[in-house]
Write a structure and sequence with these properties.
single chain, alpha+beta, five-stranded mixed β-sheet, 6 helices, about 15% strand, globular
Length: about 150
């Protein structure tokens, strides 16, 4: 039995320690905001925070999260009031929306460490998250808006 703290609440999963964290979050805990994209930690759709740092949950074994804080898009702000969530709406960032939870989680990790990033810092930090719709300019604008906050 694996014990985790997910979005501030204790959770348990009876799985193999090498089960990807993504599947525990989605299939066992019902937190479906975190998306499966590539399964190889290349696209960023599955990004969550582990002790405040962005990680790809598709390639993070659940055992690596034991005793650490896991935050998903649902835990960032359950009411949708996080500055990034508001900025995403204001900038009309989403088209299909599939990658956006991972994009927001990646951006939230940046703003937690750097309240006023430059455009270049935003681009560098977000470069590992892919968007099939190509809304990169809107994503950057949303991060800039949230940083102005």
């Amino acid at each position: 039995m694996i014990s985790l703290v997910v979005n501030g609440k204790e959770a348990h999963a009876d799985v193999s320690p090498d089960t990807p964290l993504l599947w525990v979050l989605r299939d066992m805990l019902g937190l479906t905001g975190t998306k499966f994209g590539c399964g190889m930690a290349q696209c960023g759709a599955c990004t969550v925070h582990l002790d405040g740092n962005p990680v790809r949950s598709c390639s993070t074994p659940v055992a690596a999260a034991t005793g650490r804080r896991v935050t998903t898009i649902e835990g960032l702000s359950p009411t949708g009031e996080h500055p990034l969530q508001k900025a995403w709406i204001a900038e009309q960032t989403m088209q299909c929306g599939y990658c956006q939870p991972g994009q927001i989680m990646q951006a939230a990790a940046l703003l937690a460490k750097n309240k006023k990033p430059t455009r270049e810092q935003i681009v560098a930090h977000m470069s590992g998250n892919l968007c099939r719709c190509g809304t990169y300019n809107r994503i950057i604008a949303a991060v800039e808006r949230a940083a102005q906050g």
